[in-house]
Structure formats: C-alpha cells, structure tokens
Design goal:
about 160 residues, 3-stranded antiparallel β-sheet, 3-stranded mixed β-sheet
C-alpha cells in the first residue's frame, strides 16, 4: 500500500479491526519513510448489476448516487447517518441477491421508495414526487394516503 503523503511503497499495518457491521476491516498503517499514519478500509468487492437507464444507456451502479438521492430526500429529517448506511446496505444486498447482470433504474427507484417508506414517510413522499414526476396536487395526495395510517373504524 502506497503512502498517501509521500507515495512511498513500504507501509506497515499498525492495527486491524473489524468494522461494527462486520463487512469491512479497518487498518491503521504507518509509512516507514515519512512516519505518518493513515487509515485504510478493506471490504469484499462484489459486482453489482449494471444500471439500465430510461434512455437505454448502461452505467455502473454507483453507491454515491444512491447516497446522494437518499440524502436529498432525507434533508432536514431526523434520520441518523447510520440508518442511511444501513438502508444503502439493504438495497445493495437486494441487488446482489437478485443475481442479475443488469437492472432497470426504475427497479432501483422502487427499492429506494420501499426503504424510504419504512424509515421516513416525508422523505418517501419527497422522493416519490420526483421519481414519479408528480404534476398535480392529486398525485401528492395519493402518495400521502399511501403512507398515512388508517383510522380504525368505530363500531357502536
């Protein structure tokens, strides 16, 4: 591993520990040349399916785009960063579990909506309004009705 400070090739691992979620290893390293320390993370690299966009083009799955979409929908909402990470992890696991080489962006959008519906109803409606291209107030009302708890009917 090259040192990010001096580009020297000889670095030693000073400490290794498994991350809290168990899917990566955190390593503290020290450069034998400049003596600076830095952290690296090692995780299994699995190939997620390519994303087929609406226009037919294909792009690599990008977890940064997924995170950015979630963060935009969750902006100013009381959702912890750990919940966002867990949500991304669940979506990636579902994609891997499908065993597909390609997946339509619409299907990923549906997975995102399902997850948002679970963790924050407001974020769900925000995301749905963009994802489904709401054009009038009735479409917003429909999305709100989807997440609003049903009132128990009274029987006298």
């Amino acid at each position: 591993m090259r040192c990010p400070f001096c580009d020297h090739e000889d670095t030693q691992v000073v400490d290794s520990r498994e991350s809290d979620d168990g899917d990566s290893v955190r390593r503290r390293r020290r450069c034998s040349n400049c003596d600076k320390r830095f952290t690296t993370y090692e995780r299994v690299e699995l190939s997620l399916p390519a994303v087929v966009k609406k226009n037919g083009s294909r792009v690599e799955f990008d977890r940064r785009k997924l995170r950015a979409s979630l963060q935009l929908a969750l902006r100013k909402r009381p959702v912890a960063a750990e919940q966002v990470d867990a949500t991304i992890h669940r979506i990636e696991e579902k994609l891997l579990g499908l065993g597909l080489r390609e997946i339509a962006s619409e299907r990923i959008g549906e997975l995102v909506m399902r997850e948002l519906k679970r963790i924050d109803k407001i974020a769900y409606v925000r995301f749905a309004s963009v994802y489904r291209s709401f054009e009038d107030i009735d479409e917003f009302a429909d999305a709100i009705r989807e997440v609003r708890p049903r009132k128990a009917s009274r029987s006298d």
